[in-house]
Backbone:
């Protein structure tokens, strides 16, 4: 069965109210752990259909033939009717799945860098690198027919720090859009593996808080649901969310020209110069709220229907400051090098709690490691207290790219 | 309705492993995956034999509709305001090992997860419910009982105080503790504080813990592992001694014939490499009543739900998150407490488990999935009430 046959079948079942999605991808993955090595090649094709007959239906499978069977099964359960979304229109040129190279061999070099950064206290235990290409296509009942390709290199590096009888595992995920920053990765991994070995508690209970890129990225991931909810909590609707020179933006145009529903990607300013301005919409939420879709219908896999989600979220500043300036500004505070547990963000009650490892900073100078410290308080206050960010950004996969940047919080309470 | 299939060819020798995976399961995909594998490995084509496949006739919508009819009135009665997602997964796996006969096995699993609004004595509150089990006809009654229990009125919780605490892990929740501090450290290849302690006595003599994949009444069960090995029930702790670990063909080969696979090579998807993983963690019952355990506890926490756990194998530190607990004062249940985190280290915590385990064993259906190295596989466990001393506790969030 061809995709054209599927389109005809969908039109017969749900005239003017269907969408067909196809994803084709290839990837190569390498895993290195000492002398052990694992290489994998993966080629995956998936097709998915949504249709309203008038009940909403979804089916996905690995081939058009299998999708045809799955559609038959998905049509049978009794489900209440619902309105289909207002489908986007447009066409784009057809694309082919691009060729790509295997991931480079970087484990030895990264291992040397980790050992050097940690003065021999940390050892790279494993490195996974994955390089892949995908080709996606969406067609719908309104004549939309768009296709686009994308390419990504992602990875996970793991290390173990040892001091005496104590040891600590560390893990860093990364995504490289261009050449990878191995030195930065080694530094981050080394910090995570060795700082907790100090056994030293935080000597201060309040002060400035300097956030590493991964910590800022975790914070953005934690607050992102505020911009994809129909009913954000009241505290999040305050006009002044950030300092006046900071903005929060989602712009996936560098990654893909369309979202998973075929809506064109665009830059959406969520917080502009400190003031809340916008939110992110897929077709369904746009239909509910009367807003325009912003291109944020995201498919994590062809196996799941699109959901409303950020796609490439990051902070911007009118006056970014180099990271060394941010450090120099700290009179007495902590540098959070890495979270040691996932950041807790209770959006309903406007509370957060971060547990991290890092360094004491006094008068702009590092004074010694802190094995584990905690910061907790109101999310709203934390956001408004971000005084400055650094210009350099690193996009981390979590699971969509989030721009991590060093950030200085002017006041925080530590436990 | 999602219908997917995948096929992977795997080659391993001298610590080097290759997998080529295609998202179809037909002859073309087989040829493509083998060709891809050979191009990297420089090996001749392996012989292909036909397996006698298990039959998994998809009941598809009929089964889904049957469950919808069963669950709708049940949810309407016990959790009328809810946001639940239920999933019925039918999985069929065929394995063609290089040595040994091809095998085929099928499983049907049901999950019900989400939030519902329940009454408490002060005001309505949102509670989380999670239930995982293999599909059986008697499951409806079990879901009904557990949901009714979860929806019982409660006092308004007070925050957990930070510090050291003793605790009783009740209602089967101790399975999560042992999953973290025994199952993961004893997965072959893992370097942990238990490495090199084979036959050492690390816990009280009452404690017998095994991993039993053949318990098909539990969510983590299977008849064949993903390398085509029939799983064996593996004793991990026998009278408090470390006596076993979880192995796969790959780890057995790496051990140069000193051990064989005990059927714990598991993969989440066709394209993932099989890793030695736990399945169903089963703790044997003791002879102590709940009242006696409470009396022995004196002061501490009574915990029936653990909704998350993690372990860092290098340091041996672990964490368990509980959404609620009861304070125990003078051997009696007292205040309702809010969410908190228990933390400890593997060896001291094993030592801190008191002699005298509960006499009833409970399946812990809230435990359903375990993630390691990006691979999420079904797991479960059952355990009696367990009294453990000297854990660190603090409020969560």
Residues:
């Amino acid at each position: 069965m061809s995709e054209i046959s599927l389109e005809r079948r969908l039109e017969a079942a749900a005239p003017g109210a269907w969408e067909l999605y196809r994803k084709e991808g290839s990837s190569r993955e390498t895993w290195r752990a000492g002398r052990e090595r694992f290489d994998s090649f993966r080629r995956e094709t998936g097709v998915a259909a949504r249709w309203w007959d008038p009940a909403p239906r979804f089916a996905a499978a690995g081939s058009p033939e299998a999708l045809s069977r799955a559609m038959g099964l998905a049509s049978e359960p009794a489900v209440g009717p619902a309105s289909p979304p207002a489908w986007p229109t447009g066409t784009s040129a057809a694309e082919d799945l691009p060729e790509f190279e295997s991931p480079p061999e970087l484990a030895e070099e990264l291992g040397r860098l980790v050992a050097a950064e940690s003065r021999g206290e940390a050892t790279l235990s494993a490195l996974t690198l994955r390089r892949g290409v995908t080709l996606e296509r969406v067609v719908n009942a309104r004549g939309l027919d768009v296709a686009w390709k994308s390419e990504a290199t992602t990875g996970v590096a793991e290390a173990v720090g040892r001091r005496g009888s104590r040891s600590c595992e560390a893990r860093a995920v990364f995504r490289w859009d261009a050449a990878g920053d191995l030195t930065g990765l080694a530094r981050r991994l080394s910090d995570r593996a060795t700082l907790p070995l100090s056994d030293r508690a935080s000597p201060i209970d309040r002060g400035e808080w300097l956030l590493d890129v991964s910590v800022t990225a975790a914070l953005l991931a934690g607050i992102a649901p505020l911009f994809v909810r129909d009913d954000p909590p009241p505290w999040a609707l305050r006009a002044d969310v950030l300092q006046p020179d900071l903005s929060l933006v989602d712009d996936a145009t560098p990654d893909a020209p369309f979202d998973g529903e075929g809506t064109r990607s665009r830059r959406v300013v969520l917080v502009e110069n400190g003031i809340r301005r916008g939110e992110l919409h897929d077709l369904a939420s746009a239909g509910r709220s009367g807003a325009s879709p912003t291109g944020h219908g995201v498919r994590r896999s062809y196996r799941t229907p699109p959901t409303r989600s950020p796609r490439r979220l990051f902070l911007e500043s009118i006056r970014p400051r180099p990271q060394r300036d941010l450090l120099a500004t700290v009179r007495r505070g902590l540098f959070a090098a890495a979270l040691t547990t996932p950041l807790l963000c209770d959006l309903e009650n406007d509370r957060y709690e971060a547990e991290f490892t890092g360094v004491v900073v006094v008068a702009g100078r590092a004074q010694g490691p802190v094995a584990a410290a905690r910061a907790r308080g109101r999310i709203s206050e934390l956001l408004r207290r971000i005084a400055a960010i650094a210009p350099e950004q690193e996009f981390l996969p979590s699971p969509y790219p989030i721009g991590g940047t060093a950030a200085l919080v002017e006041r925080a309470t530590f436990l | 309705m999602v219908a997917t299939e995948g096929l992977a060819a795997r080659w391993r020798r001298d610590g080097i492993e290759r997998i080529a995976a295609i998202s179809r399961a037909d002859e073309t995909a087989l040829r493509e995956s083998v060709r891809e594998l050979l191009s990297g490995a420089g090996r001749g084509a392996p012989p292909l034999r036909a397996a006698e496949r298990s039959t998994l006739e998809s009941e598809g919508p009929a089964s889904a509709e049957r469950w919808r009819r069963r669950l709708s009135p049940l949810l309407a009665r016990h959790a009328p305001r809810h946001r639940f997602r239920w999933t019925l997964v039918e999985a069929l796996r065929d394995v063609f090992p290089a040595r040994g006969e091809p095998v085929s096995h099928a499983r049907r699993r049901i999950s019900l997860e989400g939030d519902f609004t329940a009454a408490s004595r002060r005001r309505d509150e949102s509670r989380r419910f999670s239930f995982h089990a293999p599909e059986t006809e008697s499951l409806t009654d079990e879901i009904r009982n557990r949901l009714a229990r979860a929806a019982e009125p409660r006092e308004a919780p007070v925050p957990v105080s930070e510090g050291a605490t003793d605790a009783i892990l009740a209602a089967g929740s101790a399975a999560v503790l042992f999953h973290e501090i025994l199952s993961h450290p004893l997965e072959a290849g893992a370097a942990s504080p238990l490495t090199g302690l084979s036959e050492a006595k690390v816990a009280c003599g009452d404690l017998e813990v095994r991993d039993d994949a053949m318990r098909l009444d539990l969510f983590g069960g299977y008849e064949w592992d993903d390398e085509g090995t029939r799983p064996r029930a593996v004793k991990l702790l026998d009278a408090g001694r470390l006596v076993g670990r979880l192995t796969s063909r790959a780890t057995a080969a790496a051990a140069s014939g000193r051990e064989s696979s005990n059927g714990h090579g598991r993969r989440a998807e066709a394209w993932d490499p099989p890793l030695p993983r736990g399945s169903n963690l089963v703790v044997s019952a003791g002879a102590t009543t709940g009242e006696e355990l409470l009396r022995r506890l004196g002061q501490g926490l009574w915990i029936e739900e653990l909704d998350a756990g993690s372990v860092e194998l290098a340091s041996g530190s672990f964490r368990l998150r509980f959404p609620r607990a009861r304070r125990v004062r003078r051997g009696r249940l007292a205040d309702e407490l809010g969410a908190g985190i228990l933390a400890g280290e593997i060896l001291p915590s094993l030592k801190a488990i008191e002699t005298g385990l509960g006499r009833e064993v409970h399946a812990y259906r809230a435990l359903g999935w375990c993630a390691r190295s990006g691979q999420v596989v079904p797991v479960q466990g059952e355990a009696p009430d367990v009294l453990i001393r000297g854990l660190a506790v603090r409020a969560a969030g």
Observations:
- The CA atoms of residues 33 and 82 of chain A lie 51 Å apart.
- Chain A touches chain B through 44 residues (CB under 8 Å).
- The radius of gyration of chain A is 24 Å.
- The first strand of chain A starts at residue 18 and ends at 33.
